[in-house]
Amino acid sequence: MRNIYLVRHGETEPGMRKGRCICRTDIPLSAEGVRQAEALGVWLASRSVSRIFASPLSRCRETAWIMAREAEFACGGKQAPKPEAACASLVIEAVEELSEIAGGLWEGMLFSEIRERFPETYEARGKALGTVAPPGGESFLEGGIRLYRAIRRLLGGTGRSEGDLVLVTHSGVIRGLLCLMFGWDPARIMDIPVPCGSVTRLWTEGEGELLGRIEEAGVRPGRYPGREACLRLWDRYDLPDHIRAHEEAVAELACGWAGKLCEKGQPLDAELTYEAALLHDIARLGPDHARAGAKLLREEGYPELSHIVRVHHGMAGGEEYRLTEASLVFLADKYMQGDKRVSLEERFEKSRAKCRTPEGMENHQKQYRQAAAIKRNLEYILGGNT
């Protein structure tokens, strides 16, 4: 089996693309994009890869170079690799077919200007985003076909690409390929998560077809982003101070429990617990905030965080009988009224008044039963020290 890792380049300077159609315009990495590329390098160090192929656009070549440099350093190397030349074990090669979809006449234009000058095509593309191309450009699916052909060529018997492949490329062609592979609705192609600095794993057996799982699309190299990145997400989504304070309090409580459980031999990740709690109300200002927050975090490339956030307002039946990162965040959230700790009884008594339908009351009672079950399990293992 050979793995094919499709890496989306790191984040670019936002001011240069705001409100514009940017496909092949050459934009450099931002400071955050450099950090993302460095994280990809740590991920790369644990993979058996000898060559990196990259789109010729600078944001991909720079991502590839930083990845290779960090991987070499992580493996004890003292020299950074150079494009087109072997240094230690890694070589970086630019491949034209890995470029982003062509923007055609729309490249670099403001979307407001596109809407005025090309109203019919703009409207048609809005209804069928994956299949309608800008004038003189490519559709997402056309870009996906090009990427597929490039992968088949690089997998071919040229002797240049033995082993697993890393392809540093762009979201448009990755989405186009995944849409074709998984039978995704092309009109909803932007729902396929491919955030900057993420990895999508595909594989092939011998000369067989490319295989993959949508669950492995657009996943960041780490299980969680780190506290500073969590705080940047707070800023990006304009989280008010009182929600930030609540999330901090929930995170401290849940992480404290996770640490004590780890000391008792429970297989938990305290940092995953902490960061999931820091982000559990990231979409609190909108409707169905648990589901919306989960979607947001999946789009950011963190499937484990996404799951924990999704279930913090209602776990699947039976999940409450296992002490997991998700159940700890669920319980800690129920212990906090704002940023003040209260009893479960007090918290649920106050929230009962919000239940205006039989379904709402039933869900409220279910959450109380689940919280009580998690509390009993926690007290049993920690000896009542919760």
Number of helical elements: 14
Strand percentage lies at: 5-15%
- Principal-axes geometry comes out as globular
Total discrete domains: 2
CATH architecture of the largest domain: 3-Layer(aba) Sandwich
CATH class of the largest domain: Alpha Beta
The SSE string, one letter per element, is EHEHEHHHEHEEHHHHHHEEHH
Instruction: Please bin the fraction of helical residues.
Output: 40-55%
Spatial extent as radius of gyration: 23 Å
Low-confidence stretches: 82-88
- CATH homologous superfamily classification of the largest domain: Phosphoglycerate mutase-like
- Give the spatial strand order of the biggest sheet: 3-2-4-1-5-6
Q: How many β strands by DSSP?
A: 8
Sheet with most strands: 6 strands, mixed
What's the end-to-end separation, in Å?
48 Å
Tell me, rounded to a whole number, the average pLDDT. Answer: 91
Structural class: alpha/beta
For the structure shown, list the relevant keywords:
single chain; 386 residues; alpha/beta; Rossmann fold; Hypothetical protein af1432; 2 domains; 6-stranded mixed beta sheet; two-stranded antiparallel sheet; 14 helices; 8 strands; Histidine phosphatase family protein; phosphatase activity; His_Pase_superF_clade-1
Task: Provide a descriptive summary of the structure in words.
The structure is a single chain. With 386 residues, this protein is α/β, with parallel strands linked by helices. The chain has two domains: 2-216, Phosphoglycerate mutase-like (Rossmann fold); 227-382, Hypothetical protein af1432, CATH 1.10.3210. It has 14 helices and eight strands. It has helices at residues 31-44, 58-74, 111-117, 119-127, 140-155, 171-182, 227-236, 241-263, 270-279, 289-299, 303-310, 325-335, 344-352, 358-382; strands spanning 2-8, 51-54, 91-94, 165-169, 199-204, 211-212, 336-337, 340-341. Strands 3-2-4-1-5-6 form a six-stranded mixed β-sheet, with helices on both faces. The model is unreliable at 82-88 (pLDDT under 50).
